[in-house]
Amino acid sequence: MAEKTYSGPELPEQIKNLGGHLRLIVLGAVAFVLAFTSFFTVDPEEVGLVMRFGEFTRTADPGLNFKIPLAEEVQIVPVERQLKLEFGYRTTSSGVRSTYQKEGYRDESLMLTGDLNLADVEWVVQYRVEDPYKFLFKVRNPDQTLRDISEAAIRQIVGDRTVNEVLTVGRAEVANQGQMLIQAICDEYETGIKVEQLVLQDVNPPERVKPSFNEVNEAQQQRETLINEAKSAYNRVIPRARGQAEETIQKAEGYAVNRVNRALGEVARFNDLYGEYMKAPEVTKQRLYLETLEEILPKIGNKVVTDQEGNSVLPLLQMQMNGSGTPGRPLQQAGSGSESNTNNSGNN
Predict the structure, then answer these.
(1) Quick one: which of 295, 292, 302 has its CA closest to 330?
(2) Paired strand residues for 56
(3) Distances, alpha carbon 282 to alpha carbons 68, 250, 267, 278, 285, in Å
(4) Beta bridge partners of 85
(5) Residue partners of 269: CB distance under 8 A and separation at least 6
(6) Residue 319 CB coordination number (10 Å)
(7) Between the CA of residue 179 and those of 24, 56, 64, 79, 227, what are the distances in Å?
(8) Long-range pairs, 328-337, Cβ under 8 A, ≥24
């Protein structure tokens, strides 16, 4: 049986063919990688910054975009998404029941107030990238820069206030001034960041002195309650007293006007009567006498007629009242004595 022997010229040809296949595979892989890396996608809330050999060239809008492989690089920046930085705690899981971790972050929130007390202030800075070019190229590590700016601004504002202001009535003012100060520093540093909101999550005294602070707050609340109750009683009593005083004054003024007018009327009546008297004294005197008797006699039950000396007293004289309420004619007594006595009383 003849044995097969190796022929020298056949082996280099096989190796040559194998090398050609390998080159094709490598070239195809390289072409695929280049084609795959030439396209990139930008989400609707993002923007892409294209850099060619490290230099910024253009901005890529949301959608599918092309870049030169190996020569251009893209950095995606969220410009429509609201970002946040947390101070004094970190959110470990968000949802219906979010969980937080505070251990290890107390140094961020523990700060000194203006009256040399300590306060544990936890806050959140919510921001948005307004200028992506400045955000990437004007400041190195903009997130850490914003964190340092926020912490410095809040410490400055809290350090200008007492601990009671920070814990109670001054929280809203601290948040507003903190937002404006952080935004001013960000604009000065050209960070390209827009601070949309600063929220004080929790402001508490340190754990060791928290019971004492709670007692002080309760006392202040009780004081405010008593002040409000006193103001309520004041607003309820004082206006009523003022109304009663005004009513009394008006009644007195009305009474005074009434008395003055009545006195003026009596004076005018007396003057008119005096004028008539001066014209005819006897007639006026007789008329006044009769009018006076007409006014007085109906009010007397029993009438007795006498003369000037009290003599010739007549028997009981009944003045009968007619139906109209005016005195009727007297019952005449027999004899001339009655007539003379009546004349005598008339002369009186």
Answers:
(1) 302
(2) 51
(3) 140, 46, 22, 9, 5
(4) 125
(5) none
(6) 15
(7) 61, 31, 37, 19, 34
(8) 330/303, 337/312
Contact present, 303 and 342 (Cβ < 8 Å) = no
**Distance between CA atoms of residues 187 and 127, nearest Å:** 13
Residues 6+ apart with CB under 8 A from 171: 200, 203
Ordered per-residue pLDDT tens for the chain, 348 residues:
445 554 544 445 556 566 666 777 777 776 666 666 778 888 888 999 998 888 888 888 888 888 878 788 888 899 988 999 999 999 888 777 888 888 888 888 899 998 888 889 999 999 999 999 999 999 989 999 999 999 999 999 999 998 888 888 888 999 999 999 999 999 999 999 999 999 998 888 888 888 887 787 788 889 999 999 999 999 989 988 999 999 999 999 999 999 999 999 989 988 888 887 888 888 888 888 888 888 887 777 666 666 667 665 555 444 444 444 444 444 444 334 444 344 444 443
Tell me which residue of 210, 182, 181 sits closest to 119, measured CA to CA: 210
Q: Are 60 and 49 in contact (CB under 8 A)?
A: yes
212-217: Cβ within 8 A, 24+ apart: 213/163, 213/167, 216/164, 217/167, 217/168
